[in-house]
Amino acid sequence: MTTKQSIFVIGAGAGFAGDRIEPAVNMARSGTVDAIALECLAERTLIAALRGRQASSDGGYDPRLRRRLRPLLATTGKRCRVLTNLGAANPAAAARAARKLAQETGAGNLRIAAVIGDDVGNRVNDIEWMEPTAGGEWIGAHAYLGIDPMVEALTGGADVVITGRVADSSLFAAAPVHAMTLDAAGLAGALTLGHLLECSGQLSGGNLSEPNQPDLSVAEYARLGYPIGELQADGTAIIRLLDGEPGRLNAAGCTLQLLYEVHDPRAYITPDAVLDFSNIEFEQLGLNRVRMTGARARPRPERLKVIGFLARRGLVADIEIAYAGTGALQRARNAADILRMRLLDDLAPADVRIDLVGVDSVLGAASLPLLAEPPELRVHVSVRCDDAEIAQMVEDEVYTLTISGPAGGGSVRSERRPRIESITGFIARDRVPTRIEWANQ
Amino acid sequence: MMKIGAIATGRSGDKGDVLDLTIVAYDNAAYTRICQTLTVERVAAILAQVAPSPVERYELPKLRALKFVAPRALPGGVQASLHAGLHWQKAAASLLLELELP
């Protein structure tokens, strides 16, 4: 690295594991983006990855790796780098898989780095947990790493950086921090911009409904452009779309995303700084073009946050039965009451929940009033079960309604899931050493 | 009568046990009105119908935004939930946007 950049263009290529593929491909092909970050790791996906790693030492990363990276690697290089946490529970194996894919696609010269060190599953006793952990079995524990190991990989010449658990804002901030000379305000801007970008389309018009404005059209949602940030060295940024891509970027939408899943907006803790969002302002510069100013930060925290997954005894059984036609609502309500009557003979009320999908399964007692009889609806039963035998009993009780319950019950579906709780903890930084593993060697 | 959703927009999310809701007003007058209407007690009472929890309110006048945080609304996180929606909290902001303004 010789000269430092004065502006860095970072694209939000993905905001969760199942996100669309083509927004990142469009960014890479545009030739106007310096780096693309792909955020692909949530609690749910990390739990799945931990189970995948248990099954095979070559597993444990996002199974979408090939589908997501194949069209990107061909255009990745010195101009556009890729950073992604789809390494999940096994970044080294993911980097090897990416290396193989690069060779297959004629991009075998790419340098692919894995960031190792977030897995603290063998140090759960060094972690101060915020909830009681007794009586459960640890599935895994991962520290949220910051920018440092990603910057190290980029300094070492990485074109593709694959991580496990890193803070989302840090995943997006690492490439600009590496390429620019940033003071504290610049770092605050990089991390705040990263936080804004981490949910991809949710910044550029997705999940947004505004007063006095129609929602985006079906065609616009279907081809939504994902946001790109241009960071300046002073920590201000311009957020925009690729030319011609549909979407909606405005101050209100940016504010929603700035505060999304934030606790104290004056103290948003990342591994690299404690961000203060209270001085941020968004200014509309033009269509789908917004300037962010006012990013501020205090020094990084002493300890790293950890997410731990604890399997509790037993499992959760989810079962549904559908009713349709005249009187469906009453028959469904009766079915729910019959199930309560029978299940509560054996199970504690706190372990049984029955909702009517189509009526009140999302917002419960706060749901909007029912103004007309729904033509069809589903009774949804979720039960915490001590073992598979009880789950079977619950499933059988629902099935039995098809012959011994209200008329016309059918379309029964059932699933079982493990009882896994997410627990937050904190660990001293010196207990979380990191290193880079190069897939090329 | 006018609903909060006529002068503001909102979004809700989760982190572990914590439910969070953001309401953003479109001008300063609207911000004053949502500050008056969406008291901590009112928001806590609305959420209590779905997920009882204490509620904290953060005011962000420069952004014309209110942030509500309900730290105990999602015990064990969404993966442990018996709620049919699992991620029902994504719809929680609508509970506040539906409220009538005085």
How would you describe the overall organization of this protein?
The complex is a heterodimer of chains A (441) and B (102). By secondary structure, chain A is of the alpha+beta class. Chain A has two domains: 283 residues, no CATH class; 116 residues, 2-Layer Sandwich (Alpha-Beta Plaits), CATH 3.30.70.100. In chain A, the strands form three sheets. A ten-stranded mixed sheet of chain A has the order 12-13-9-8-1-2-3-7-4-19, sandwiched between helices. In chain A, strands 5, 6, 15, 16, 17 and 18 form a six-stranded antiparallel sheet that branches. Chain A has a three-stranded antiparallel sheet with strand order 10-11-14, covered by helices on one side. The longest helix of chain A has 17 residues. Chain A is globular, with a radius of gyration of 24 Å. The model of chain A has no long low-confidence stretch (mean pLDDT 95). Chain B has 102 residues and is of the alpha+beta class. Chain B has one domain. The mean pLDDT of chain B is 90. Chain B has a four-stranded antiparallel sheet. The chains are: A alpha+beta (441), B alpha+beta (102). At the A-B interface, α2, α9, β15, β16 and β17 of A face β1, β2 and β4 of B.
Helicity of chain A, as a percent range: 25-40%
What's the helix count of chain B?
A: 3
Tally of separate domains of chain B = 1
Gyration radius over CA of chain B:
13 Å
In sequence order, what are the helices and strands of chain B, one letter per element? Answer: EEHHEEH
Computed structural class of chain A: alpha+beta
Strand content of chain A: 25-35%
What is the C-alpha radius of gyration of chain A, as a whole number of Å? 24 Å
